[in-house]
Design goal:
This protein is mostly helical and 205 residues long. It has one domain (3-204). Helix content is 79%, strand content 0%. It contains 7 helices and no strands. The protein has helices at 3-11, 14-37, 46-65, 85-107, 111-144, 151-171, 175-204. Helix 4 (85-107) packs antiparallel against helix 5 and helix 5 packs across helix 7.
Length: 205
């Protein structure tokens, strides 16, 4: 199943839709915590603080959207309140691990330089994905007449992508090659997650 078909099936079932929103909230929260974890206590920048704060707000906003559905039975990020729970929880962690391995091998980075490089590449890859996923999700929401909407997240994610591009250009003169590698890794992991999501949705709807 392609992403739009999966999301269309999800949005037609309120209980499944609630778990999907909760899963997106989990992933935004995971991203926010990863950004915070890579902060240097002395040299953390305005952009990094802004980005972490906005990702935390996205996690909260998505949780808040649950109130627009008839069922709000997703109080925590426990597996029973998520879709494709194992893959959803592993996706960002695995991306981080593989990008760190790439940066160690390719650029010999370590310590805070490695953490910052991983932050740039992982976040860039995720923002590229968000720029695809959220507009498709919003189109499905609009077509179904759902009260849920993610328009504010779409606007902020577009801004994040522009910010990441600016930071990457200062990170390395060869930034495009490194960014493309991060996107390549993310695409493989996303496809695996999408397969798990499709399999679970097919069992329910």
């Amino acid at each position: 199943m392609e992403l739009q078909s999966i999301l269309t099936a999800i949005v037609t079932d309120n209980r499944l839709h609630a778990r999907w929103l909760n899963t997106l909230s989990l992933m935004e929260n995971t991203g926010a915590r990863k950004i915070s974890a890579c902060e240097d206590p002395l040299t953390v920048t305005y952009i990094i603080l802004k980005h972490a704060a906005e990702e935390h707000r996205h996690a909260f906003y998505l949780k808040k959207q649950l109130e627009k559905l008839d069922t709000t039975d997703c109080p925590t990020y426990a597996p029973e309140y998520l879709v494709a729970s194992a893959n959803s929880k592993q996706y960002l962690n695995q991306l981080d691990v593989e990008v760190c391995r790439y940066l160690k091998n390719e650029l010999g980075l370590q310590g805070k330089e490695l953490r910052f490089g991983a932050y740039l590449l992982v976040t860039y890859a995720i923002e590229v994905r968000a720029d695809e996923l959220y507009p498709i999700y919003q189109d499905v929401l609009t077509a179904s007449g759902s009260k849920v909407n993610v328009k504010s997240i779409i606007l902020e994610e577009e801004g994040h992508l522009e910010e990441m591009l600016n930071q990457l250009q200062h990170f390395s003169p060869d930034w495009k090659r490194h960014a493309d590698k991060a996107v390549e890794i993310e695409t493989r992991l996303f496809d695996k997650w999408l397969q798990a999501l499709a399999a679970e949705v097919n069992q329910i709807v």
